[in-house]
Design a protein that fits this description.
binds S-adenosylmethionine; five-stranded mixed beta sheet; SAM-dependent_MTases_sf; 8 helices; 16 strands; methyltransferase activity; 338 residues; methyltransferase; 3 domains; RNA_MeTrfase_FtsJ_dom; transferase
Length: 338
């Protein structure tokens, strides 16, 4: 059977679960660690087409990014020349929009920044007449360089599980930004293509200090924020915002009052799911829910399955379950009520 090799990336500390996901999809997986708990090489017993198809059919939760290894060489300067020669021979890149994703560890011989290394490689590839771009590339050239070796591969962006380099989507922190938690919802918007501006009225459960609430207000929604803790002072008189300083198990809403429910309570997952499902009467059919699920147990895959079943039992259809780049010890569920 044909085997294919990939560099796989998960959030720091979650590589073992990404490996488990690959094992469930492809059977025995031979893997070698590149960056402890985060980046590893996996040899999968399937053709590249099959790998892409199976991953697309069952999108993983913890495996954040995957890039093919089609070129491998020692980690020295001559290897760079050989890499350039190899890429110049990849005719499908000629005249195309190409994104160059480069990750380099600190012990790679090239001491300047990954950006400078990328520029050097792009200069060597001028003969291809490719348009090097970040936005909407037709192809991604992924390069990973560490002290021992340099790896590279060419793939379609949709086959990498993320169109970001290593699946790491970064946002700039705005002046006055209330919390880093806001990045989670910003990432969910991009990653799950959630049209937040199309909703009208959201309930934000566990809203303090107010990063998610401020994001939803920026998208033009009315927001009801529920949290016994104080909201940030910049939000206390915000138009369109109603603040309920209460525990979520004490609040009552009208039926179908909201078309969006978000919850970022960092609480025991089962208690969170019980509490949120108890409030789903207030979410109109067709409404969207975005909920973070804290990973407290040793067996997160089983726990996630259980939490998903609790929501599915309450007419929630799971669109995605994913550990976002900005999730720490948690994952994000994106659901729609039917
Ligand atoms: C991680 S913080 C939320 C951060 C928020 N998403 C943001 O963007 O700023 C979790 C919040 O959940 C709140 N919380 C925990 N249990 C709750 C409950 N039973 N009802 C309401 N809020 C709760 C906590 O008070 C805390 O403020």
């Amino acid at each position: 059977m044909e085997a294919s090799r990939y560099i796989c990336t998960a959030n720091h500390g979650f590589a073992a679960y990404a490996q488990e996901e690959l094992f469930r999809l492809f059977g025995a997986v031979k893997s070698t660690q590149l960056l402890p708990g985060e980046v590893f090489i996996a040899t999968l017993q399937a053709s590249p087409e099959e790998v892409a198809a199976r991953l697309a059919q069952q999108l993983p939760v913890f495996l954040r990014h995957i890039q093919p290894i089609q070129f491998e060489d020692a980690g020295d300067s001559l290897a760079l020349e050989r890499l350039a020669a190899y890429l110049n021979g990849r005719e499908e890149l000629a005249g195309q929009k190409v994104a160059m994703h480069l990750r380099k560890s600190v012990d790679y011989f090239w001491t300047e920044s990954p950006g400078q290394l990328r520029e050097w490689i792009q200069e060597q590839l001028q003969g291809l007449n490719a348009e090097f771009t970040v936005q909407d590339p037709a192809w991604v050239v992924s390069i990973y360089a560490d002290g021992a070796a340099i790896y590279a591969g060419v793939s379609r962006p949709e086959d990498n599980l993320s169109s970001w380099n290593g699946g790491a989507i970064r946002f700039r922190k705005d002046d006055g930004q209330i919390s880093r938690a806001k990045f989670k919802l910003m990432e969910a918007e991009k990653e799950f293509e959630i049209p937040f501006s199309s909703f009208r009225h959201a309930v934000d459960i566990g809203a303090s200090p107010g990063g998610w609430t401020s994001f939803l207000l920026e998208r033009g929604l009315q927001v009801t924020a529920v949290d016994p803790a104080l909201m940030h002072e910049s939000l206390r008189k915000a138009p369109g915002l109603k603040i309920l300083r209460r525990n979520a198990n004490e609040v009552k809403f009208k039926e179908n009052e909201f078309d969006l429910l978000v919850c970022d309570m960092s609480w025991s997952p089962k208690l969170m799911a019980k509490l949120v499902t108890g409030l789903l009467y207030s979410l109109a059919p067709g409404g969207t829910a975005v909920v973070t699920v804290k990973l407290m147990h040793k067996k997160p895959l089983a726990m996630i399955k259980e939490i998903i079943a609790m929501f599915e039992g309450e007419r929630m259809q799971i669109q995605r379950a994913k550990q976002l780049f900005h999730n720490r010890d948690e994952i994000t569920l994106y659901m729609i009520k039917y």
